[in-house]
Amino acid sequence: MEEYQPVAYRLAFRMLCDEDDARDAVQQTFIRIWRGIGSYDPARAFPTWMYAIVSNVCLDQLRQRRRRSLVLFRREEDAVSEDVPDDAVTNLQLAATIRLLTGKLPAMQKLVFTLRDLEELSVGEVVSITGLSRDAVKANLWHARRAIRGILLKDLQRGERV
Q: In the chain, where does DSSP find H-type helix?
């Protein structure tokens, strides 16, 4: 658990853009791993299996957010004080950027983009984690990149900095 917890947290944080939600997702992930260890296939790489579980937990949380119609926008500038450690400030800034760039993407596009472009996994690994076909991964990634590029271009045209 100690070896894989930082990896699981990084993915959960990038998907959920919230430290507390990411910690909850990681805890839920390791509970699912513990309960499902009997179904683990040793022929499959453990990190890939774990990524699939983290991804499913995060997708569940994102769906729950949508169903409840909770829009959790908070101004990171207001949340930062002098007492906040540098890591927390960096996480808030990273969360704000990721939320800005991926916030309007459908959950699967966000997942595929996060796994492929932020976690730098191969398309094959993303296929294994998500259960999507290779073509579906590529299509989701193309749409996600296109949407993000559009956001960045709009901001550049307005002279804003992301």
A: 5-16, 19-36, 46-67, 76-79, 86-102, 107-113, 123-130, 134-158
- CATH architecture assigned to 5-158: Up-down Bundle (1.20)
pLDDT in tens, the chain (162 residues): 788 999 999 999 989 988 999 999 999 999 999 999 988 888 888 999 999 999 999 999 888 876 654 344 444 444 444 454 566 666 677 667 777 778 788 989 999 998 998 888 999 999 999 999 999 999 999 999 999 888 888 877 877 555
Q: CA 64 to CA 60: how far, in whole Å? A: 6
* pTM as predicted: 0.67
Q: What CA–CA distances, in Å, run from 3 to 9, 25, 46, 110, 140?
A: 11, 17, 12, 25, 30
Where are the chain's structural domains? Answer: 5-158
